[in-house]
């Protein structure tokens, strides 16, 4: 019996499975990012005096701690666009890009779910329980991203391409070993990059700049009762990332 228990214990030891640990790190890090970011969005909308600046700062701080959570295990990509960039640089395999992206998507979905249920009463205050994507009582945009009414299709494409390029480029910059940036300083710098992009490109389309951050919450809002309207702009989202890659 003791021998069987030892075998089972050995098989379940996560530290012996490097890829599993990396995928869990990506999932947990992305989970935390979406939990903090979307919760900030809901709170800003529900509380008098809330504003976009508080959301931008919260997203940056959330990203900083998400990177701290995952960096030592997986490198804290937390974003399929970053994983693709690392693949282009030759740092990871194509297989890892796929696996990391799936883990990030799951984390984004779960983080949004916890944020949604944690702020359930706030959402009732905003929409009275009538889950809408658009309109004065629309709340889907607090979790996923949609372009503002004045944005054209090509304007939205360009907005996402530029925002994602800035994020991916600067993350690669601050993690480049040739710059000799101490590893402990990378997460705060990454958080500053996130807040910077949010403050400069956030108003146009919600600064998705991250396929997992966009698609994970979009899938959750579909399941939460917002309906298929949440995918109205999905083709624009897919095309923008295809052009970037």
Automatic annotation (TrEMBL):
Principal localisation: membrane
Subcellular location: Membrane
Keywords (A to Z) from UniProt: Membrane, Transmembrane, Transmembrane helix, Transport
Source organism superkingdom: Eukaryota
SUPFAM superfamilies: Aquaporin-like
TM segment ranges: 23-45, 57-76, 97-117, 154-174, 186-207, 219-239
Pfam families on file: MIP
InterPro entries linked to this entry: Aquaporin-like, MIP, MIP/Aquaporin, MIP_CS
Molecular function as annotated in GO: glycerol channel activity; water channel activity
Membrane topology qualifier: Multi-pass membrane protein
UniProt similarity note: Belongs to the MIP/aquaporin (TC 1.A.8) family.
The protein, known as: Aquaporin
Species this chain originates from: Heligmosomoides polygyrus (Parasitic roundworm)
């Amino acid at each position: 019996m003791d021998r069987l228990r030892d075998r089972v214990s050995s098989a379940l030891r996560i530290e012996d499975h490097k890829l599993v640990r990396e995928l869990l790190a990506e999932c947990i890090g992305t989970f935390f990012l979406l939990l903090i970011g979307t919760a900030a969005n809901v709170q800003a909308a529900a509380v008098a005096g809330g504003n976009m600046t508080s959301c931008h700062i919260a997203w940056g701080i959330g990203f900083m701690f998400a990177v701290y959570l995952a960096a030592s295990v997986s490198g804290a990509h937390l974003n399929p666009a970053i994983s693709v960039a690392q693949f282009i640089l030759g740092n990871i395999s194509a297989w890892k890009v796929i696996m990391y992206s799936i883990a990030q998507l799951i984390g984004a979905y779960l983080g949004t779910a916890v944020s949604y249920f944690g702020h359930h009463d706030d959402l009732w205050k905003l929409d009275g329980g009538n889950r809408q994507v658009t309109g004065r009582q629309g709340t889907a945009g607090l979790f996923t991203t949609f372009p503002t009414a004045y944005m054209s299709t090509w304007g939205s494409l360009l907005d996402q391409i530029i925002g994602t390029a800035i994020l991916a480029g600067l993350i690669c910059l601050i993690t480049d070993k040739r710059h000799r940036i101490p590893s402990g300083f990378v997460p705060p710098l990454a958080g500053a990059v996130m807040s910077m992009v949010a403050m400069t490109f956030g108003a146009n389309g919600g600064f998705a700049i991250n396929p997992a951050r966009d698609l994970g919450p979009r899938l959750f809002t579909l399941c939460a009762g917002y309906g298929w309207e949440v995918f109205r702009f999905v083709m624009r989202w897919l095309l923008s990332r295809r052009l970037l890659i």
